[in-house]
Amino acid sequence: MKTKAAVLYEANTPLVIEELDLDDPKEGEVLVKIGAAGICRSDWHFMAGEAKTALPAVLGHEGSGVVAEVGRGVTSVKPGDPVILSFVSRCGRCHFCTTGKPNLCDLHMATSTTMLDGTHRLHKGSTNYTPLSKLACFSQYSVTPETACVPCPTDLPMDKAAVIGCCVTTGVGAVVNAAEVKPGTTVAVVGCGGVGLNVLQGARLAGATRIIAVDINEGALEFAMQFGATHSVNPSQQDAEARVREITGGLGADYTFEVFGSGKTVEMAYNMARKGGTVTIVGIPPDGDDPSIDAVALVRQEKTLKGTYYGSAQLQVDMPRMVELYQTGRLNLDDLITRSYRLEDINEAYQDLNRGEVGRGVIMEF
Ligand code: COD
Ligand code: ZN
């Protein structure tokens, strides 16, 4: 079949909307009609050449849709089922899948530019197109692994389902699964965009009492107050590390999070943590932009420095929990999504992200 998709041919050039050939789903795969796709900075890292994949590629790793057709052997979903798309597909057999860490599936990572069997479904002429995260949801249709599909309620709007597919699970999961924030503690979040806002609301959910939003964009700081922030700090206007110490009684925060992706912001999150505090890194800095962490101080101050990928989540279990938290009013996804776009307007959507428009943008028309 044909599908209209946004293609990245070369870093630092606009995405090109065009029609591609999409193969039928193979064994263990599913054809999904995409319902919504989020505008996440992680895709931008590829567009800006800060992260690398084989080109041409169809990006889009935050999505939802409705199952249109299933391949041989698929049992967990059927045509007509609404699904949240997981940007990690688990093989179910590797060390990580079998020990409760399917977000780190070896086979998924080893086949990062193809489907799980090492082949492609998207083509034009003799050219294969990389399906980013095996989802490629900047497209009308996508063929995904069955294990990328997390069934969701039919009354869950597609835009809410899409954001649960990345920024909600990544952000809330960083708090509850990775850092394991305790009630009554202090939290600082460096970078308060789509993912950071969910770290903030995850911290509120976990019972943190002082929740400090740190961002260079005043609009983002103001917006963050709706998502649980109790204080805001702008590093471009004040000594942010000193201000966080001041807010936390001279100690530094119990938990800090880096949610932008640069060496400088990793250092900032590290320095904002108190002795014995936990520093959780969500963002990935561009190649070569390494943070400088003092190993002596790491020991003497007993800080814990940890990375988290996809909210350290078990996707099939945690995503339905996010749905439940939204549907019972504990997670605010209604205000999180601030703008919607047509697929044709995807380059403007990324301009808006880089201009500092607050909240999450979502493609709703394909
Ligand atoms: N200090 C504080 N805040 C800053 C600074 C700074 N120096 N520079 C920018 N910011 C703020 C921006 O103003 C913005 O508000 C925020 O940081 C970033 O928000 P968004 O909406 O642009 O980005 P997100 O939330 O969509 O993505 C953030 C990630 C950290 C997920 C992303 O950048 C990243 O590093 N992704 C790679 C990790 C990954 O692949 N994760 C899985 C899929 S998300
Ligand atoms: Zn994302």
Tell me what you see in this structure.
The chain has two domains: 2-151 and 336-365, Quinone Oxidoreductase, Chain A, domain 1, CATH 3.90.180.10; 171-309, NAD(P)-binding Rossmann-like Domain (Rossmann fold), CATH 3.40.50.720. It starts with a strand and ends with a strand. The mean pLDDT is 98. It is globular and about 60 Å long. Strands 3, 5, 6, 9, 10, 17 and 18 form a seven-stranded mixed sheet that branches. Strands 13-12-11-14-15-16 form a six-stranded parallel sheet, sandwiched between helices. Strands 1-2-7-8-4 form a five-stranded mixed barrel. Helices cover 29% and strands 27% of the residues. The chain is of the alpha/beta class. The chain is built from eleven helices and 18 strands. Helix 4 (158-179) packs across helix 5 (194-206), helix 4 (158-179) crosses helix 10 and helix 7 packs parallel to helix 8 (263-272).
